[in-house]
Amino acid sequence: MSPSPRSLLAPLLLATCVSAQSTAISRAETALTTLQTWYNPSTGMWNTCGWWNGANCMTVLADLALVDDSESVNNTVKGVFANTFSVGPVSNPYPDRNNDSYYSSAVQSKRRSVDATQWIDGSYDDDAWWGLAWIAAYDVTGIEDYLNLAAGIFDHLSQAWPSKCGNGGIDSDFTHVYVNAITNELFFSLAAHLANRASDRDYYVDWARRQWTWFKDSGMINSNNTINDGLSSDCKNNGGAIWSYNQAVVLGGLAELDRAVSNESYVDAAAKLAKASIAYLADDNDVIHESCEPDSCDSNETQFKGIFIRNLKLLHSVAPNDAYAKVINASANSIWQNDRNAQNQLGVDWAGPVSQVDASTHSSAMDALVAAIGI
Fold first, then answer.
1. 3-state DSSP call for residue 45?
2. Cα–Cα nearest to 245, from 293, 317, 193, 310
3. What distance in Å separates the CA atoms of residue 23 and residue 28, rounded to the nearest whole number?
4. Exposed e or buried b for every residue in 66-77, given b needs 16+ CB within 10 A?
5. Collapsing DSSP states into helix, strand and coil, what is residue 321?
6. Cys-Cys link to 260, which of 195, 200, 232, 352 (CB 3.0-4.6 A)?
7. Helix (H) or strand (E) segment spanning residue 234
């Protein structure tokens, strides 16, 4: 009996998948080597980018280690975690903003094994980025101090609840002037991540549910299912820019909350937001762009797109969707082919040509290369 066409095709498909996986890993490892040329062991940060960007640099390292079993990669990544944990606070731009005068004292902080005050600076979004980064480090290493640090950061942020709008959420920083999307998405995502890792699961599930309920009703999600930058002084949608990271972090939070409680309504909401975001942010080749490209992005905006892809991949891991995979792969392939210079540095415009390059643009693009592994 001659073999069926399907049986002949199977080994070819397997070989193609293995080859694609190998290519994706090789690209990400190359990007890691280049990113580490910016790493400064004395500060625990990456030269050319800022404090909160450093948290995202660390997160992409963790994400790579979770999908790449290379001993070299894991040794590098774990070494960065240990060093940054030790010396990183010297880079905190506002270390004096770490006491109750910059956070409400309405909730008593729990006693933790790690002093989280070294990692907070009165900008509540900065704080939450570091919380998520240390959760990512915990996922790789299982080191409890990393998880306790993230939980300690959450403790301080929870003291800032509620914001001045709608009896919920938190303000963007200690001045309590602006209620924005990213800070509230981060607070939500941090709670949802902790719900799947910390011992007091129900406590964090409750926080995540309350924060999501407040956020979805806040008015920041517009009629097109994209998310504006924040709320006006009278607590209405301010019509601010549709930045990619504002479309992103909520997706990861909803994916983590679904993992915690298995409620389809969360991934359904995430899918609606993700598809609207892709329609807004992707070009005809399915590559993600920021409105400030190619030459007007500041040192914050250069980080945004990688955050979008990272959280889209997290949603894809819970609720796979071909539309998500297409964008991730298209962005990763375009970065490698069109947005990489001779030094393997990755720029801000993923469709190319390479222009602005630093640790922020590079780590952001590396997020897409890492996300493409296993797609």
1. strand
2. 310
3. 9
4. ebbeeeebbebb
5. coil
6. 195
7. none
280's enclosing H/E stretch is helix 264-281
pLDDT computed for residue 105 by the predictor: 45
Beta bridge partners of 231: 237
Q: Is the dihedral of CA 341, 345, 350, 353 positive or negative?
A: negative
CA distances to 33, 36, 46, 168, 258 from 344, rounded to whole Å, are 9, 12, 17, 45, 37
Residue 276 has φ and ψ, to the nearest 5°, of -65, -40
State pLDDT tens for residues 23-38: 999 999 999 999 999 9
Asked if residues 88 and 51 have their Cβ atoms less than 8 Å apart, the reply is: no
Listing DSSP states for 137-204 in one string gives HHHHH--HHHHHHHHHHHHHHHTT-S-SSTT-S--SBTT----BHHHHHHHHHHHHHHHTTSS-HHHH
289: left (phi over 0), alpha (psi -120 to 50) or beta: beta
Q: Which helix (H) or strand (E) holds 114?
A: none
For β-strands 45-46 and 39-40, DSSP reports them as antiparallel
- Per the CB < 8 A criterion, the answer to whether 224 and 276 are in contact is yes
* Among 369, 368, 359, CA closest to 49: 359
d(CA 133, CA 309): 16
Cα 73 to Cα 41: distance, rounded to the nearest angstrom: 17
Question: Is 31:339 a contact under the CB 8 Å cutoff?
Answer: no
Q: What is the structure's pLDDT at 207?
A: 98
Residue 39: in which H helix or E strand, if any?
A: strand 39-40
pLDDT in tens, 291-342: 999 999 999 999 999 999 999 999 999 999 999 999 999 999 999 999 999 9
Count the neighbouring beta carbons within 10 Å of the beta carbon of residue 284. 5
How many other C-beta atoms can be found within 10 angstroms of the C-beta atom of residue 337? 10
C-alpha distances (whole Å) from 18 to each of 21, 39, 171, 306, 366 are 5, 32, 46, 25, 21
